[in-house]
Amino acid sequence: MSKKREIKNHVELLQKGNRGLYALSLLVGLITGIIVSIYRYGLNIASILREHYIGKELLNDPSRLLFIWGIFIAIGFFVDYLSRKFPTTGGSGIPQVKALILRKLDYIFWLKELLVKFFGGLLGIGAGLSLGREGPSVQLGSYIGYGFTKIFKRNYTDEKYLVTAGSSAGLAGAFGAPLAGVIFSMEELHRFFSSKLIICTFLASICSNFVARRIFGMDPSFSLSIKYPTDINPYFQFLFFTIFGIVVAFFGKLFTVSLIKTQDIFKEVKLPRFIKVSFVMTLSFIICFVMPDITGGGHELVEELPHINQTIIFLLFIFIVKLFFTTLSYATGFQGGIFLPMLVLGAVLGKIYALVLITFFNLNSDFVVHYMILGMAGFFVAVVRAPITGVILILEMTGSFDHLLAIATVSIVAYYITDLLKLEPIYEILYERMPKKKIEDDLEEERHEHHNKTLICIPVSAESEFDEKLVKEISWPKNTLVVAIRRGDTEYIPKGSSKILAGDVLVLLLPEKQADKLNETLFKMGTAH
């Protein structure tokens, strides 16, 4: 009887979680928008300072040259210290958010970590490292969501919603793309859609985007003169799209393999850490002199590409250098993402492809920007394996929906080819490689199995281990109890003969000490094909 009462209390607690949740999502979006906008504005100032203080005139002033070089090295040492002291702040931040949602990671000192992520990214990217602002922005939003959970004493279920809402708001504020922020959370972080999750993420993203647009204006993120080229046979257009999608897929695999290999090599090189950091910062200092456009995220490079006359060979050189510098910058573990550098590489690849078509088929210059846009979307999809996010993100960032069919075609082809190549999503790979929270052994779990319980929600996708199965047919992990099945707006207590369908959300009761270990296992059972 007491067990039934306990289950009933847990279900009631889950249902009461909606009270104030949407209001908190709005607040999380608002605060995230402010913080991410300040972060973005700070990176803009850092870019201006690099351009102002680092130029060829420094070669005539050796003392000043050495002084600025010393500043770069000092920044590297300081950011490296922060990254090692607070390891959860290192890198992109998106794998950490996934780990937090799956209870494989905790933000133990969330406010300190937020500050470290903010200033570490500002200094590292500001010093020219080829890293993007989007990953840190997503994680900054997750810190806000997590902090609100603790401040307002919300349960674990609400924590997932607020962390996801903050992450969506972070991406929306970083790129002025609220819809992409929502879709990214569904497609990459959760891999399922629910009305409650959509509302929370939408509210937060819209608030964050509203704040960002008050500061950066209403223009789309990329200022490009876009015109859809129509002076070509549509069948030839479709053929060119298909070929380009295949090309982008192979280059996407090159990026993924290079990123992972560079990380491994950087760790395996038998040199003191300070020497490796000094090398990377010195390289950044040199590149700021000779090729300043490829430093930082590379946003300016995308906007300059259509207006500069470069040869195909030179563009290939830019692609290789940007690729190498991005993978090396990320290997340091400093606070910065790969999102924006990926888009830049895709844009460069798009221009190369356009120039090839122009040379051999005598096409007009409208194809340059056209294929730059397609390249950004296709390259993103090939690496991240999130096609809907890729399409929506580029449409919002460019402000042109004329390219919808073309972007969708290239993205689908790139996704299909990378699937044939058995290329895993980059954030899944990074998630698997990151250190997780240590789980207590089975004896310790057994000792605590009768202590506090917790609820988790597991989505059910088509063709997963749960789909079309009866509750009694599933080999549930030990101490797992199915207390409710949500189907649409209906929630009911299941029996052994209840059938689980794709689109359901299972509410499971677990011993709190085992939840961290079982959450990921159950999530994979519900979503993996």
Automatic annotation (TrEMBL):
<feature type="transmembrane region" description="Helical">
    <location>
        <begin position="161"/>
        <end position="185"/>
    </location>
</feature>
<feature type="transmembrane region" description="Helical">
    <location>
        <begin position="400"/>
        <end position="417"/>
    </location>
</feature>
<feature type="domain" description="RCK C-terminal">
    <location>
        <begin position="441"/>
        <end position="524"/>
    </location>
</feature>
<keyword id="KW-0406">Ion transport</keyword>
<feature type="transmembrane region" description="Helical">
    <location>
        <begin position="274"/>
        <end position="292"/>
    </location>
</feature>
<protein>
    <submittedName>
        <fullName>Chloride channel protein</fullName>
    </submittedName>
</protein>
<feature type="transmembrane region" description="Helical">
    <location>
        <begin position="114"/>
        <end position="132"/>
    </location>
</feature>
<dbReference type="InterPro" id="IPR006037">
    <property type="entry name" value="RCK_C"/>
</dbReference>
<dbReference type="InterPro" id="IPR014743">
    <property type="entry name" value="Cl-channel_core"/>
</dbReference>
<keyword id="KW-0868">Chloride</keyword>
<dbReference type="InterPro" id="IPR036721">
    <property type="entry name" value="RCK_C_sf"/>
</dbReference>
<keyword id="KW-0472">Membrane</keyword>
<feature type="transmembrane region" description="Helical">
    <location>
        <begin position="312"/>
        <end position="331"/>
    </location>
</feature>
<feature type="transmembrane region" description="Helical">
    <location>
        <begin position="367"/>
        <end position="388"/>
    </location>
</feature>
<feature type="transmembrane region" description="Helical">
    <location>
        <begin position="236"/>
        <end position="262"/>
    </location>
</feature>
<dbReference type="Pfam" id="PF00654">
    <property type="entry name" value="Voltage_CLC"/>
</dbReference>
<feature type="transmembrane region" description="Helical">
    <location>
        <begin position="197"/>
        <end position="216"/>
    </location>
</feature>
<dbReference type="Pfam" id="PF02080">
    <property type="entry name" value="TrkA_C"/>
</dbReference>
<keyword id="KW-0812">Transmembrane</keyword>
<feature type="transmembrane region" description="Helical">
    <location>
        <begin position="63"/>
        <end position="82"/>
    </location>
</feature>
<keyword id="KW-1133">Transmembrane helix</keyword>
<keyword id="KW-0813">Transport</keyword>
<dbReference type="InterPro" id="IPR001807">
    <property type="entry name" value="ClC"/>
</dbReference>
<feature type="transmembrane region" description="Helical">
    <location>
        <begin position="338"/>
        <end position="361"/>
    </location>
</feature>
<feature type="transmembrane region" description="Helical">
    <location>
        <begin position="21"/>
        <end position="43"/>
    </location>
</feature>
